[in-house]
Amino acid sequence: MADENLTDDERDLGASPVSATEPDPTPADDADFDAATESAPEEAPQYGVGPFTIREVAILGLWAVAFIVSFFSVVRAPFSSVWMSGIDWVLTIGVPTVAVFLITLRRFSPDGIRRVGSLGVDQFASVAFSVSSVIWLSYIWNTIATVVDDGPWYTTWVVWVELIVFLALVLLTVFAPFIAPFDEDFRGRPEAPAHRNARAVRAVVARPRPEPTPESYAPVSGDGAAQATGAYPIGSYAVDDAEPSTGDTGVVDTGGWSPTPAYARGATDTGAQPVADAAPAAASRPFWALSPVERDVVDERTGAALFRIGPTAWALVIADRGSSFVVQHEDGRVGVLYDVSGVTRG
User: 119-120 and 334-337 as β-strands: parallel, antiparallel, unpaired?
Assistant: First the structure.
């Protein structure tokens, strides 16, 4: 009878009938299964004054005192409130007022402005109150410095009241998560993704250096046609690792180098002729050269120095242009030596 409950596909797969309402007896992960079935612990309800918490009411009250006092003069004479001292009002009372407005707006419009840049409303208020406290402290600090220099005490009671008020506001924002009962404002808040600018930074790795790629120079082919690489035609030759030296006989020892040009210079060769546009480079065989002083070998196209040759080592010249040499470095780089005066040929 069990086979009658199977579909054709289930008979082919050899499946057994399972009730559609029967739960899976083996969850994939017991820990995940238990975590999914357990309900999150409920936080105790938070009471306050109307729509505001006790901490928010304290912030509103302190700000009201600071805002009213800001209209009094901060110096003895002439009358000059913080609103009349240039742009000092921006950080002393202006930005803190914006922070208090956002704290109030958050209670009446939860979906309104919830952050300033990458800062949450409480974080923005912490920064605003801290900066304002430092500025009010600087007023007092400058006054004390003036008195020490035998000057008058020129500030009024306003700076002291403002400093005390904003230090209290710093206590209610920066240190509130660690002080009861104000810490209730920060417990049980719903999880939310962090702003992009507030997330952990990415790891920085060193930039990979590009591998040097030596320029390729193609030899002239047997039929006299050079490959279209803009390279100088070079015959095949082998160079020993030892540097050439003149020895005692005055004859230059090339260190085992024997040129074998790939183009014909006479009628006894294979009949191949050099390419017309490569004639300046093919007019001479490669030879060794010794510069009397250090000189730059430069890139023919850009004029940038590629390497230097000097009196301490022989350089391989692959083409003699008369007033300049085409020199090849041991690592394959090729450039032009324009100053050939006093060069000893090997």
Answer: unpaired
